[in-house]
Task: structure prediction
Amino acid sequence: MSKGEGRREPSLLVICGPTATGKTAVAAALAAEVGGEIVAADSRTIYRGMDIGTAKPPPHLRAAVPHHLLDVADPTEVFTVAQYQRLAVAAITDILRRGRLPLLVGGTGLYIRAVVDGLQIPRVPPDWAFRRQAEAEEQAAPGALYARLQQLDPLAAQRIHPHNLRRIIRALEVIAATGRPISEQQRARPGPWRVLVVGLWMPRPILYRRIDRRVDEQLAQGLVAEVEGLLARGVPPEAPAMQGLGYKEIVPYLQGRSSLAAAVAALKRNTRRFARRQESWFRRDPRIRWIDVGDAAPQAVAAAIRAMLAVNGTSARQGGCLERMHVVPAEAEE
Result:
């Protein structure tokens, strides 16, 4: 990208938003236009062999545009935010060194914050005994762990959804190990980049239709066989990777504890809930410039973002607005 007189274009572009809003296709279209490379910010696509259920970028997109931080961990591993932060910062630094534009793309808000804000991640290793005990406590008294977190670290409790048991337990684990609130230890040290953060949004009816359609497509692509293969490889159902959408719903079906219809209904329902939680998370960040993409084609959304890149007013001060697009719907494009 050429730089105009006195213009300071972003050196890092973030594309975020709820699941199924088209981030993958939009980012690929934009990266192809501007000479960019994509750094995935998704806590599920990091796992190898988990392609369909995570809606990982398809091979043709990965061949057309360089992608980073896909398939970097085995599903049996625990992959931490600190690990992600280190790899993502290294990838962004390398992309910039080669004179290209890094696009940080995904829906895992904590991953994005860890990179953009330079969160200082507590170096506390997993305590599996603590986690098992915490899970048992939660089963005996649902909501007890979140109530405890509200008492011990109110700020962290504000940032964590009451149903996000994994993050609640992690926060309590850090508090137990260090004697200090995790919110005190996650101090921000923003990176050296000029950042433009763009959020993709669409009305709920459109989003829900897209979610339902994607789930149906995943089933047709072989989601059940993918989950079955992971279990056959020895990936335990309780592994963190298997707790993601598309896997935790199919496992009961494969174990004979649910019908396929019930599993599919649960997956669609849980994905809608997840999308609402993602939107709530991102809405708290005033830096995000939101685009109402509706049913717009990825190329049209990419063009709108490229126009943002070309304007000198792309700082955090301009966030929080909702820009509506009047473009050709994806279905109408040839």
